[in-house]
Amino acid sequence: MKRSVFVKAGMLCFALVASLSTAGLAGAEPDEMEPQAPSGVQEMTLCPQGWFCVWNKPHFQGNWLGGTVVGTCYTPFPAPAGLNSVSNQTGHTVRLYSQEGCGGIHQDIGTGMGVDPTSIKVRAARIL
């Protein structure tokens, strides 16, 4: 099954995560605040639980597209200018493809993992 419909929810999730994060910091003293996550880890967690997210730029920057349905070929992703960054929060392995229609060279991303940057320009993806 191919799907060409993606959910562009990156900014909505960013706003939600940002508002939840700042709500917990209200009134906290500097020495009471949690230590900051290493660069890239916070950005990777902007991908909602149960989703895989592919950003159109490295370092989890730009807009993201993704999906949740196992076995579906998500295609085509817009041609990126460079390499992508990816977060997999699905609970399954996600296979990234270099060609539309889930073909060509592929790269597998384990559940709970993020890759920045990918080794291929992502044109399609499938949750295995």
From TrEMBL:
It comes from the Bacteria. Residues 1-28 form the signal peptide. Keywords: Signal. It holds the Pfam family Inhibitor_I36. This is Peptidase inhibitor family I36 protein. It comes from Nocardia panacis. The lineage of its organism: Bacteria, Bacillati, Actinomycetota, Actinomycetes, Mycobacteriales.
